[in-house]
Amino acid sequence: MVLSNYVKRLQDIMRNDAGINGDAQRIEQMTWILFLKIYDSKEEDWEFYDEDYQSIIPEKLRWRKWAVDKKDGKALTGEELLNFVNQELFPGLKNLKINENTPKSQTIVKDIFEDNNNYMKDGVLLRQVINVTDELNFEEYKDYHAFGEIYETILKDLQSAGNAGEFYTPRAVTDFMAKMLNPELGEKIADFACGTGGFLTSVLNILDKKVDTPEDREIYKNSVFGIEKKALPYMLCVTNMLLHDIDSPDIIHGNSFDKNVREYKEEDKFDVVIMNPPYGGSEKKTVQNNFPVDLRSSETADLFMSVIMYRLKRNGRAGVILPDGFLFGTDNIKVSIKKKLLEEFNLHTVIRLPPSVFSPYTSITTNILFFDNTYPTKETWFYRVDMPKGYKHFSKTKPMKLEHFDDAINWWNNKENIEIDGFDKARKYSIKEIVENNYNLDLCGIPHFEEEILPPKELIENYQKERAELDAKIDETLKEIKDILGI
Question: What is the model's pTM?
Fold first, then answer.
Protein backbone atom coordinates (compact mmCIF):
# COMPACT_ATOMS: atom_id res chain seq x y z
CA MET A 1 0.00 0.00 0.00
CA VAL A 2 1.17 3.52 -0.76
CA LEU A 3 1.46 4.99 2.72
CA SER A 4 0.18 8.43 1.73
CA ASN A 5 -3.10 6.84 0.57
CA TYR A 6 -3.73 5.09 3.90
CA VAL A 7 -5.11 8.07 5.80
CA LYS A 8 -7.27 9.24 2.88
CA ARG A 9 -8.81 5.79 2.48
CA LEU A 10 -9.75 5.66 6.15
CA GLN A 11 -11.17 9.17 6.09
CA ASP A 12 -13.32 8.34 3.05
CA ILE A 13 -14.75 5.29 4.85
CA MET A 14 -15.36 7.07 8.16
CA ARG A 15 -17.14 10.01 6.54
CA ASN A 16 -20.03 7.61 5.90
CA ASP A 17 -20.36 6.71 9.58
CA ALA A 18 -23.00 8.69 11.49
CA GLY A 19 -21.19 8.19 14.79
CA ILE A 20 -18.19 10.31 13.91
CA ASN A 21 -18.53 14.06 14.11
CA GLY A 22 -15.67 16.01 12.56
CA ASP A 23 -11.95 15.60 11.89
CA ALA A 24 -10.85 15.35 15.53
CA GLN A 25 -13.00 12.27 16.17
CA ARG A 26 -11.90 10.70 12.87
CA ILE A 27 -8.28 11.18 13.88
CA GLU A 28 -8.86 9.72 17.35
CA GLN A 29 -10.63 6.69 15.85
CA MET A 30 -7.88 6.22 13.28
CA THR A 31 -5.13 6.52 15.88
CA TRP A 32 -6.33 3.91 18.40
CA ILE A 33 -6.78 1.42 15.58
CA LEU A 34 -3.34 2.20 14.16
CA PHE A 35 -1.85 1.98 17.65
CA LEU A 36 -3.16 -1.56 18.17
CA LYS A 37 -1.80 -2.63 14.76
CA ILE A 38 1.63 -1.12 15.50
CA TYR A 39 1.68 -2.53 19.03
CA ASP A 40 0.88 -6.03 17.76
CA SER A 41 3.74 -5.77 15.28
CA LYS A 42 6.05 -4.62 18.06
CA GLU A 43 4.96 -7.58 20.18
CA GLU A 44 5.93 -9.93 17.33
CA ASP A 45 9.45 -8.49 17.56
CA TRP A 46 9.55 -8.76 21.34
CA GLU A 47 8.35 -12.38 21.18
CA PHE A 48 11.04 -13.19 18.62
CA TYR A 49 13.85 -11.88 20.82
CA ASP A 50 12.38 -13.05 24.15
CA GLU A 51 10.79 -16.49 24.22
CA ASP A 52 9.43 -15.77 27.72
CA TYR A 53 7.60 -12.62 26.65
CA GLN A 54 4.03 -12.38 27.95
CA SER A 55 1.62 -9.82 26.52
CA ILE A 56 -0.35 -7.68 28.94
CA ILE A 57 -3.30 -7.87 26.51
CA PRO A 58 -5.58 -10.89 27.02
CA GLU A 59 -5.26 -13.27 24.07
CA LYS A 60 -8.83 -12.67 22.87
CA LEU A 61 -8.22 -8.90 22.70
CA ARG A 62 -4.94 -9.02 20.73
CA TRP A 63 -5.07 -7.55 17.21
CA ARG A 64 -3.97 -10.83 15.62
CA LYS A 65 -6.93 -12.64 17.18
CA TRP A 66 -9.90 -10.39 16.45
CA ALA A 67 -8.86 -7.85 13.82
CA VAL A 68 -7.17 -9.94 11.13
CA ASP A 69 -9.55 -11.00 8.37
CA LYS A 70 -8.42 -14.40 7.09
CA LYS A 71 -11.04 -14.28 4.32
CA ASP A 72 -12.70 -17.43 5.67
CA GLY A 73 -15.98 -15.71 6.50
CA LYS A 74 -15.31 -15.83 10.23
CA ALA A 75 -14.01 -12.25 10.78
CA LEU A 76 -16.15 -10.15 13.11
CA THR A 77 -18.22 -7.52 11.33
CA GLY A 78 -21.49 -5.59 11.65
CA GLU A 79 -23.24 -5.65 15.04
CA GLU A 80 -21.08 -8.54 16.23
CA LEU A 81 -17.92 -6.47 15.72
CA LEU A 82 -19.45 -3.36 17.34
CA ASN A 83 -20.55 -5.37 20.38
CA PHE A 84 -17.09 -6.90 20.73
CA VAL A 85 -15.29 -3.53 20.48
CA ASN A 86 -17.67 -1.67 22.80
CA GLN A 87 -18.38 -4.39 25.35
CA GLU A 88 -15.16 -6.42 25.42
CA LEU A 89 -12.19 -4.69 23.77
CA PHE A 90 -12.45 -1.22 25.30
CA PRO A 91 -13.53 -2.34 28.81
CA GLY A 92 -10.80 -4.99 28.76
CA LEU A 93 -8.01 -2.58 27.76
CA LYS A 94 -9.22 0.16 30.11
CA ASN A 95 -9.07 -2.28 33.05
CA LEU A 96 -5.78 -4.05 32.43
CA LYS A 97 -4.10 -5.11 35.67
CA ILE A 98 -0.85 -3.23 36.23
CA ASN A 99 1.44 -2.66 39.21
CA GLU A 100 4.76 -1.00 40.00
CA ASN A 101 6.61 -3.87 38.27
CA THR A 102 4.70 -3.65 35.00
CA PRO A 103 7.10 -2.40 32.28
CA LYS A 104 6.32 0.92 30.60
CA SER A 105 6.07 -0.87 27.26
CA GLN A 106 2.91 -2.52 28.63
CA THR A 107 1.37 0.14 30.89
CA ILE A 108 1.04 2.43 27.87
CA VAL A 109 -1.76 0.20 26.53
CA LYS A 110 -3.99 0.95 29.52
CA ASP A 111 -2.94 4.62 29.50
CA ILE A 112 -3.89 4.94 25.83
CA PHE A 113 -7.37 3.51 26.26
CA GLU A 114 -8.34 5.02 29.62
CA ASP A 115 -9.72 8.21 28.00
CA ASN A 116 -10.56 6.93 24.53
CA ASN A 117 -13.75 5.71 22.90
CA ASN A 118 -15.03 3.99 19.80
CA TYR A 119 -17.14 6.51 17.90
CA MET A 120 -18.13 4.39 14.91
CA LYS A 121 -21.71 3.07 14.84
CA ASP A 122 -21.58 1.08 11.62
CA GLY A 123 -19.89 -2.28 12.17
CA VAL A 124 -19.47 -2.92 8.44
CA LEU A 125 -17.60 0.37 7.98
CA LEU A 126 -15.52 -0.37 11.08
CA ARG A 127 -14.51 -3.69 9.55
CA GLN A 128 -13.43 -1.85 6.40
CA VAL A 129 -11.28 0.55 8.44
CA ILE A 130 -9.68 -2.36 10.30
CA ASN A 131 -8.98 -4.26 7.07
CA VAL A 132 -7.30 -1.25 5.45
CA THR A 133 -5.14 -0.79 8.56
CA ASP A 134 -4.22 -4.46 8.61
CA GLU A 135 -2.90 -4.13 5.04
CA LEU A 136 0.02 -2.19 6.49
CA ASN A 137 2.91 -4.62 6.43
CA PHE A 138 5.89 -3.47 8.45
CA GLU A 139 8.11 -6.17 6.97
CA GLU A 140 7.87 -4.48 3.57
CA TYR A 141 9.83 -1.53 4.92
CA LYS A 142 13.33 -1.21 6.29
CA ASP A 143 12.09 0.02 9.65
CA TYR A 144 9.25 1.73 11.48
CA HIS A 145 10.57 5.15 10.51
CA ALA A 146 8.91 4.73 7.11
CA PHE A 147 5.57 4.97 8.87
CA GLY A 148 6.38 8.49 9.97
CA GLU A 149 4.72 9.41 6.66
CA ILE A 150 1.37 8.20 8.05
CA TYR A 151 1.95 10.08 11.27
CA GLU A 152 2.80 13.29 9.39
CA THR A 153 -0.41 12.98 7.36
CA ILE A 154 -2.47 12.51 10.52
CA LEU A 155 -0.72 15.48 12.08
CA LYS A 156 -1.50 17.74 9.12
CA ASP A 157 -5.14 16.72 9.38
CA LEU A 158 -5.04 17.42 13.09
CA GLN A 159 -4.01 20.98 12.25
CA SER A 160 -7.30 21.37 10.40
CA ALA A 161 -9.37 19.98 13.28
CA GLY A 162 -10.53 23.23 14.85
CA ASN A 163 -8.57 24.12 17.97
CA ALA A 164 -6.32 21.08 17.58
CA GLY A 165 -3.59 23.41 16.25
CA GLU A 166 -2.64 23.96 19.88
CA PHE A 167 -0.90 20.59 19.79
CA TYR A 168 1.32 21.49 16.86
CA THR A 169 4.56 23.42 16.56
CA PRO A 170 5.87 23.79 12.97
CA ARG A 171 8.55 21.22 12.15
CA ALA A 172 10.94 23.98 11.06
CA VAL A 173 10.82 25.50 14.56
CA THR A 174 11.25 22.18 16.41
CA ASP A 175 14.15 21.19 14.13
CA PHE A 176 15.85 24.58 14.55
CA MET A 177 15.61 24.43 18.34
CA ALA A 178 16.87 20.84 18.47
CA LYS A 179 19.76 21.76 16.18
CA MET A 180 20.79 24.68 18.41
CA LEU A 181 20.55 22.60 21.61
CA ASN A 182 22.40 19.69 19.92
CA PRO A 183 21.46 16.83 22.30
CA GLU A 184 24.02 14.09 22.89
CA LEU A 185 23.57 10.37 23.53
CA GLY A 186 23.43 9.79 27.27
CA GLU A 187 21.62 13.04 27.98
CA LYS A 188 18.04 13.03 29.29
CA ILE A 189 15.77 15.29 27.24
CA ALA A 190 12.31 16.44 28.34
CA ASP A 191 9.20 18.22 27.09
CA PHE A 192 6.72 18.88 29.90
CA ALA A 193 3.86 19.67 27.49
CA CYS A 194 4.81 17.31 24.70
CA GLY A 195 1.59 17.31 22.65
CA THR A 196 1.99 14.89 19.75
CA GLY A 197 5.75 14.62 20.28
CA GLY A 198 7.07 17.04 17.65
CA PHE A 199 9.99 18.31 19.73
CA LEU A 200 10.91 14.82 20.91
CA THR A 201 10.87 13.62 17.28
CA SER A 202 13.28 16.39 16.24
CA VAL A 203 15.56 15.42 19.14
CA LEU A 204 15.44 11.73 18.22
CA ASN A 205 16.28 12.49 14.58
CA ILE A 206 19.49 14.15 15.78
CA LEU A 207 20.35 11.39 18.26
CA ASP A 208 19.69 8.67 15.68
CA LYS A 209 22.56 9.98 13.54
CA LYS A 210 24.90 9.58 16.53
CA VAL A 211 24.13 5.88 17.06
CA ASP A 212 27.07 3.63 16.11
CA THR A 213 26.71 0.54 18.31
CA PRO A 214 23.95 -1.63 19.85
CA GLU A 215 24.82 0.01 23.18
CA ASP A 216 24.23 3.42 21.60
CA ARG A 217 20.84 2.20 20.36
CA GLU A 218 19.78 1.26 23.90
CA ILE A 219 20.85 4.68 25.15
CA TYR A 220 18.87 6.27 22.31
CA LYS A 221 15.73 4.36 23.35
CA ASN A 222 15.90 5.83 26.86
CA SER A 223 16.72 9.42 25.99
CA VAL A 224 13.39 11.26 25.94
CA PHE A 225 10.65 12.03 28.46
CA GLY A 226 7.32 13.77 28.00
CA ILE A 227 4.16 14.75 29.83
CA GLU A 228 0.86 15.43 28.07
CA LYS A 229 -2.41 16.34 29.73
CA LYS A 230 -4.90 15.68 26.91
CA ALA A 231 -5.88 12.21 25.68
CA LEU A 232 -5.69 12.66 21.89
CA PRO A 233 -2.22 14.22 21.66
CA TYR A 234 -0.99 11.74 24.30
CA MET A 235 -2.14 8.83 22.14
CA LEU A 236 -0.51 10.39 19.06
CA CYS A 237 2.72 11.00 20.95
CA VAL A 238 3.01 7.41 22.20
CA THR A 239 2.29 6.11 18.69
CA ASN A 240 4.88 8.54 17.32
CA MET A 241 7.49 7.24 19.78
CA LEU A 242 6.77 3.61 18.81
CA LEU A 243 7.29 4.63 15.17
CA HIS A 244 10.72 5.95 16.20
CA ASP A 245 11.79 2.65 17.80
CA ILE A 246 11.11 3.79 21.37
CA ASP A 247 9.71 0.49 22.65
CA SER A 248 8.93 1.80 26.15
CA PRO A 249 7.93 5.44 25.66
CA ASP A 250 8.48 7.41 28.86
CA ILE A 251 5.46 9.59 28.14
CA ILE A 252 3.21 10.45 31.08
CA HIS A 253 -0.51 11.14 30.68
CA GLY A 254 -0.90 13.81 33.32
CA ASN A 255 -0.43 17.40 34.46
CA SER A 256 3.08 18.87 34.84
CA PHE A 257 1.79 21.11 37.63
CA ASP A 258 0.51 18.37 39.95
CA LYS A 259 3.71 18.20 42.01
CA ASN A 260 5.14 20.91 44.27
CA VAL A 261 8.15 22.28 42.37
CA ARG A 262 10.18 22.52 45.60
CA GLU A 263 9.98 18.73 46.00
CA TYR A 264 11.87 17.86 42.81
CA LYS A 265 15.03 15.85 43.46
CA GLU A 266 18.11 15.42 41.31
CA GLU A 267 16.67 12.32 39.63
CA ASP A 268 13.67 14.41 38.51
CA LYS A 269 15.87 16.80 36.55
CA PHE A 270 17.00 16.82 32.91
CA ASP A 271 20.04 17.74 30.82
CA VAL A 272 17.95 19.31 28.07
CA VAL A 273 14.45 20.81 28.10
CA ILE A 274 12.87 21.71 24.77
CA MET A 275 9.23 22.79 24.54
CA ASN A 276 6.45 25.14 23.54
CA PRO A 277 4.33 25.63 26.69
CA PRO A 278 0.61 26.18 26.14
CA TYR A 279 -0.17 29.86 26.65
CA GLY A 280 -3.34 31.81 27.08
CA GLY A 281 -4.78 29.19 29.46
CA SER A 282 -5.16 29.48 33.21
CA GLU A 283 -4.78 27.15 36.17
CA LYS A 284 -6.86 26.89 39.34
CA LYS A 285 -5.65 28.06 42.74
CA THR A 286 -4.93 24.54 44.01
CA VAL A 287 -2.37 24.07 41.22
CA GLN A 288 -0.80 27.48 41.87
CA ASN A 289 -0.14 26.38 45.46
CA ASN A 290 2.54 24.04 44.09
CA PHE A 291 4.69 27.11 43.37
CA PRO A 292 6.43 29.66 45.62
CA VAL A 293 4.22 32.68 46.38
CA ASP A 294 6.16 35.06 44.11
CA LEU A 295 5.81 32.63 41.16
CA ARG A 296 2.09 31.85 41.50
CA SER A 297 0.76 32.93 38.14
CA SER A 298 -2.57 31.92 36.65
CA GLU A 299 -0.98 31.95 33.17
CA THR A 300 0.16 28.48 32.05
CA ALA A 301 3.25 29.70 30.18
CA ASP A 302 4.52 31.41 33.36
CA LEU A 303 4.03 28.25 35.41
CA PHE A 304 5.83 26.13 32.83
CA MET A 305 8.82 28.49 32.97
CA SER A 306 9.02 27.87 36.71
CA VAL A 307 8.73 24.10 36.24
CA ILE A 308 11.55 24.19 33.69
CA MET A 309 13.84 26.15 36.01
CA TYR A 310 13.21 23.72 38.87
CA ARG A 311 13.75 20.66 36.67
CA LEU A 312 16.84 21.71 34.67
CA LYS A 313 20.05 20.00 35.79
CA ARG A 314 23.16 21.90 36.71
CA ASN A 315 24.91 22.70 33.40
CA GLY A 316 21.70 21.70 31.60
CA ARG A 317 20.30 23.78 28.75
CA ALA A 318 16.85 24.72 27.55
CA GLY A 319 15.03 26.10 24.51
CA VAL A 320 11.51 27.41 25.22
CA ILE A 321 8.94 29.17 23.03
CA LEU A 322 7.13 32.01 24.81
CA PRO A 323 4.70 34.72 23.65
CA ASP A 324 5.58 38.42 23.49
CA GLY A 325 3.50 38.96 26.62
CA PHE A 326 6.12 37.17 28.69
CA LEU A 327 8.90 39.34 27.30
CA PHE A 328 7.33 42.75 27.94
CA GLY A 329 5.14 41.79 30.92
CA THR A 330 5.94 43.95 33.96
CA ASP A 331 3.40 42.63 36.47
CA ASN A 332 4.90 41.38 39.74
CA ILE A 333 4.72 37.66 38.89
CA LYS A 334 6.31 37.96 35.44
CA VAL A 335 9.06 40.20 36.80
CA SER A 336 9.72 37.65 39.58
CA ILE A 337 9.99 34.80 37.03
CA LYS A 338 12.32 36.79 34.78
CA LYS A 339 14.37 37.91 37.76
CA LYS A 340 14.82 34.27 38.85
CA LEU A 341 15.71 33.31 35.26
CA LEU A 342 18.38 36.02 34.95
CA GLU A 343 19.81 35.70 38.46
CA GLU A 344 20.04 31.89 38.56
CA PHE A 345 20.39 30.94 34.88
CA ASN A 346 22.28 32.18 31.85
CA LEU A 347 19.76 33.55 29.34
CA HIS A 348 22.25 33.82 26.52
CA THR A 349 20.00 34.17 23.43
CA VAL A 350 16.49 35.29 22.55
CA ILE A 351 15.28 34.60 19.00
CA ARG A 352 12.34 36.82 17.96
CA LEU A 353 10.14 34.84 15.55
CA PRO A 354 8.27 36.53 12.69
CA PRO A 355 4.49 36.96 12.89
CA SER A 356 2.11 34.20 11.75
CA VAL A 357 4.50 31.30 12.48
CA PHE A 358 1.56 29.56 14.17
CA SER A 359 -1.06 30.83 11.71
CA PRO A 360 -3.98 30.24 11.48
CA TYR A 361 -4.23 28.94 15.06
CA THR A 362 -2.97 32.05 16.77
CA SER A 363 -1.74 35.45 15.68
CA ILE A 364 0.31 35.88 18.87
CA THR A 365 3.94 36.72 18.11
CA THR A 366 6.37 34.31 19.75
CA ASN A 367 10.02 34.01 20.76
CA ILE A 368 12.53 31.30 21.59
CA LEU A 369 14.47 31.69 24.83
CA PHE A 370 17.72 29.73 25.04
CA PHE A 371 19.30 29.47 28.48
CA ASP A 372 21.46 27.16 30.55
CA ASN A 373 21.94 26.35 34.22
CA THR A 374 25.56 27.44 34.47
CA TYR A 375 25.87 30.91 36.00
CA PRO A 376 23.81 34.10 36.34
CA THR A 377 23.13 36.03 33.15
CA LYS A 378 25.81 38.58 32.30
CA GLU A 379 24.55 39.50 28.84
CA THR A 380 21.80 38.41 26.45
CA TRP A 381 21.84 38.42 22.68
CA PHE A 382 18.62 39.23 20.80
CA TYR A 383 18.10 38.28 17.15
CA ARG A 384 15.05 38.97 14.99
CA VAL A 385 14.09 36.45 12.29
CA ASP A 386 12.40 38.49 9.57
CA MET A 387 9.69 37.32 7.18
CA PRO A 388 11.34 35.66 4.15
CA LYS A 389 11.33 37.46 0.82
CA GLY A 390 8.16 36.74 -1.12
CA TYR A 391 6.14 36.02 2.05
CA LYS A 392 3.54 38.37 3.47
CA HIS A 393 2.63 35.80 6.11
CA PHE A 394 2.92 32.07 6.80
CA SER A 395 -0.01 29.69 6.29
CA LYS A 396 -0.78 25.98 6.08
CA THR A 397 0.08 26.04 2.37
CA LYS A 398 3.16 28.28 2.87
CA PRO A 399 4.58 27.22 6.26
CA MET A 400 7.85 28.29 7.77
CA LYS A 401 10.79 26.15 6.58
CA LEU A 402 14.07 25.28 8.27
CA GLU A 403 15.93 27.19 5.56
CA HIS A 404 14.28 30.37 6.85
CA PHE A 405 16.52 30.00 9.90
CA ASP A 406 19.74 29.82 7.84
CA ASP A 407 20.77 33.42 8.59
CA ALA A 408 20.02 32.91 12.29
CA ILE A 409 22.12 29.72 12.36
CA ASN A 410 25.05 31.46 10.67
CA TRP A 411 24.72 34.40 13.07
CA TRP A 412 24.54 32.02 16.07
CA ASN A 413 28.05 30.77 15.39
CA ASN A 414 29.47 34.29 15.06
CA LYS A 415 27.24 36.66 17.02
CA GLU A 416 27.48 40.32 16.17
CA ASN A 417 25.33 43.44 16.24
CA ILE A 418 23.20 43.96 13.12
CA GLU A 419 21.34 47.15 12.28
CA ILE A 420 18.94 47.53 9.34
CA ASP A 421 17.33 50.85 8.38
CA GLY A 422 18.17 52.28 11.77
CA PHE A 423 16.57 49.38 13.69
CA ASP A 424 18.38 46.65 15.63
CA LYS A 425 18.04 43.20 14.09
CA ALA A 426 20.60 41.71 16.46
CA ARG A 427 22.13 43.23 19.55
CA LYS A 428 23.71 42.28 22.85
CA TYR A 429 22.30 43.75 26.07
CA SER A 430 24.04 43.64 29.44
CA ILE A 431 22.20 42.45 32.53
CA LYS A 432 22.51 46.00 33.86
CA GLU A 433 20.59 47.36 30.84
CA ILE A 434 17.89 44.70 31.21
CA VAL A 435 17.41 45.35 34.93
CA GLU A 436 17.25 49.11 34.33
CA ASN A 437 14.57 48.36 31.72
CA ASN A 438 12.51 46.70 34.49
CA TYR A 439 13.17 43.23 33.03
CA ASN A 440 11.40 44.14 29.80
CA LEU A 441 12.87 41.74 27.22
CA ASP A 442 10.94 43.18 24.27
CA LEU A 443 14.12 44.07 22.39
CA CYS A 444 15.10 43.81 18.71
CA GLY A 445 11.45 43.28 17.81
CA ILE A 446 9.64 44.09 14.59
CA PRO A 447 10.11 47.78 13.74
CA HIS A 448 6.96 49.87 14.04
CA PHE A 449 6.96 52.65 11.48
CA GLU A 450 4.92 55.76 12.22
CA GLU A 451 2.85 56.90 9.24
CA GLU A 452 3.18 60.60 8.48
CA ILE A 453 -0.17 62.45 8.66
CA LEU A 454 -0.37 64.89 5.75
CA PRO A 455 -2.59 67.96 5.42
CA PRO A 456 -5.94 67.09 3.73
CA LYS A 457 -5.19 68.96 0.50
CA GLU A 458 -1.78 67.27 0.07
CA LEU A 459 -3.25 63.86 0.99
CA ILE A 460 -5.95 64.21 -1.75
CA GLU A 461 -3.35 65.28 -4.31
CA ASN A 462 -1.22 62.20 -3.49
CA TYR A 463 -4.22 59.88 -3.83
CA GLN A 464 -5.13 61.41 -7.21
CA LYS A 465 -1.57 61.03 -8.45
CA GLU A 466 -1.38 57.37 -7.32
CA ARG A 467 -4.75 56.62 -8.94
CA ALA A 468 -3.66 58.20 -12.22
CA GLU A 469 -0.48 56.09 -12.23
CA LEU A 470 -2.47 52.93 -11.50
CA ASP A 471 -5.02 53.72 -14.25
CA ALA A 472 -2.16 54.23 -16.72
CA LYS A 473 -0.67 50.83 -15.83
CA ILE A 474 -4.08 49.13 -16.24
CA ASP A 475 -4.62 50.81 -19.65
CA GLU A 476 -1.17 49.71 -20.78
CA THR A 477 -1.79 46.09 -19.72
CA LEU A 478 -5.19 46.03 -21.45
CA LYS A 479 -3.61 47.34 -24.66
CA GLU A 480 -0.98 44.54 -24.56
CA ILE A 481 -3.71 41.93 -24.09
CA LYS A 482 -5.76 43.35 -26.99
CA ASP A 483 -2.66 43.36 -29.24
CA ILE A 484 -2.04 39.69 -28.42
CA LEU A 485 -5.68 38.79 -29.15
CA GLY A 486 -5.76 40.96 -32.25
CA ILE A 487 -8.77 42.91 -31.03
Answer: 0.84
